[in-house]
Amino acid sequence: MKEREIVRRCVFCLLVSVLCAPVGRAEVLHVDARTGRDDAPGTKDRPLRTLERAATLVNARTTSGPATIVISPGLYSLNRCVVFASDRAFTEHDRLTIRASVLPDDLQWRADLMPVIVSAENLGRSGAPGRVSETYSFKIQTSHATVQGLKFLGNPLLHNWHCCIERLGEKLDDLLVTQCVFAGNARTPDIYCAALATGDRFIVDHCTFSGCHACTVFWDGPEGIGGNGCAMRYCLVRDARISAVWTCQTAKDFEFHHNVVTDSEYLWMRKPGDQQTYRMRDCVLIDNEHLSGYGTAAGPSGQTGPEVSFDRSNVVTEGRIAFTSTPPLRLVENSVGRGLGAGLFKSQ
Hints:
The chain is mainly beta. About 10% of the residues lie in helices and about 35% in strands.
């Protein structure tokens, strides 16, 4: 009888220890360029000052659980690229999230509350004058990440190709870029590429692009084929000096829908040899110089020919597109495409 009681108690203690075992806790770091300090703990009352410090802390932690970097309104000038390369195993639900403290669908949101990300990195150049340098705002080197509610202004350095958000690497999955503003200047390459990624499930959603060169680039994977489950949806594009979307033979399930693209050189850029038939649906595509072209990293090489076609459904190519005079980029009430829901706001 005593032995049975001892066994029963041991089983009970084991169950309690399992149920009470520590699990991965959510990590939340607050960043405020105006009031923060990089020797602070990163709490809401004692925020960090720089995104570089927040990334360093996130990257250093190896225990499981989600991580969120909450960015207060202000100007964030990056002297070097911010790299997110944590070794922890993020998941679809326990993600790395880099977001504004006030999001576009919040009742208190205003355009001036968007955190502004600008690259001030100056790599310097050697050799012939005019040699192009490359700078980056964020490099995401982990799966299951979200970037939300930020405004990117690129890098004003002359002869520089700037990419705001990059994810390159093998076996990377699930990057969501949502409700972000990419505001470039079409006369200088301050935003050469707004968002670029290899791998699966690269999704650009409810973003606005103005004056960028290449807005979204779905780049080759290690074996030369783009990822599965990728999409560009509910976006506004104006004045893209290369293209709104650039695909390198992305998988056939690529989604392009509920987008408004106008006054751009090309709507769609693809790598030479890519003759895949992509589907576009529920879009307004007006006053763009060319529909489709071939290009490499050096830029466009010309229009595609009859070997390339698109599967189009409910695509409007005529009418008047008009934007509001104040930021953010938004269609006026009587503009073509107003009913698509494209733009920053998910709650129209």
